[in-house]
Amino acid sequence: MSRDANYPSLTDKKVFITGGATGIGASLVTHFVAQGARVRFIDIDDTAAHELVGSLSGRATYAHCDVRDIAALQEAIASFEGPAGHIDVLVNNAARDDRHAADEVDVAYWEDRMQINLRPHFFAAQAVRRGMARAGGGSIINFGSIVVQMAAANMAAYVAAKAGIYGLTRALARDFGKDLIRVNCLIPGWVITERQRTLYWNENSARNIAEKQCIPEPLEPADLARMALFLAADDSRHCTAQKFIVDGGWE
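RESULT FIELD:
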């Protein structure tokens, strides 16, 4: 029997998740479905997305969407809302943490990183606001990153975007609060997804975690999903404009 918390307020809620096909996103989809929510997620990895939908017996739906295409993102949101409908929970999760040397970044690369890692958070939030307001409130969860506090090297554009997300969160919480829409920033530490294992895991990784985290165990996607459930549920109804760090005590 699962010992995870159950949130009755999430039953039948409409939850829209960006970047939901793999990693943290897939865990978000799975956990919200387990709470009885109606989940739509977007991604560009069709193969992984369809496998996830199949594993959940069709209890989540998928739409192909590149978050750099704002018109397509807005259309995906409107389609899930339905005529005069609304989304209860928006999870802005999609991101790319590719490493890059500062000296080699040009304008095109910089703009592309912002178009993936920051710009969609604003326009997705803007798109759901009217429906959430009609419904009497909602929750927007923006994913940041612990790299901002770490002053991480070789990812200046990514760090800049993730720092901007917290500022955006604070501003939108103020703008949307009168409609009882909560906006929070969820900040993961180093979550060991399959992508991280493939690209960045090496013999020093486990040692770094053991030495730098207060809890010397690798973070898993589910650790972030469980916090997202709390921030989406009515249990956190007065939590807004905040950052919630799940990093095992790294920082």
